[in-house]
Amino acid sequence: EKQLLAELRSGRKAILEVHLKRVKKSAAVSADVLARSTPGYSGADLAAIVNEAAIMAVLQKREEISMDDLE
């Protein structure tokens, strides 16, 4: 069971890394932390989180997203 959870988290992390490559982000942004906090999320859900974070940053006239935007 623990192995499966680790594999699922690893998959979410990989998906997040793909989507996070497309946006400017602060050094504090961690795909691993975000992957651990999003159990059960689909790839589309994860993409939407990154997109919403980018929109929030733009609306606040910031150059990059932060972990606060992602959580």
Mean pLDDT: 87
Discrete helix count: 4
Largest sheet: none
Question: What pattern of helices and strands is seen along the backbone?
Answer: HHHH
- Low-pLDDT parts are 1-6
Strand content: under 5%
Q: Based on DSSP secondary structure assignment, what is the total number of beta strands? A: 0
Whole-number radius of gyration?
12 Å
Task: Give the termini separation.
Answer: 26 Å
Q: What spatial form do the alpha-carbon principal axes imply?
A: globular
The amount of helix comes to 55-70%
Helix vs. strand class: mainly alpha
Task: Give your account of this protein's structure.
- The chain has helices at residues 2-20, 31-36, 43-59, 67-70.
- It is mainly α.
- Helix 1 packs across helix 3.
- The protein contains four helices and no strands.
- The radius of gyration is 12 Å and the shape is globular.
Element layout with pairings:
Layout: H1 2-20, H2 31-36, H3 43-59, H4 67-70
Helix pairs in contact: 1-3
Search tags:
mainly alpha, disordered N terminus, 4 helices, 71 residues
In short:
This protein is mostly helical and 71 residues long. It contains 4 helices and no strands.
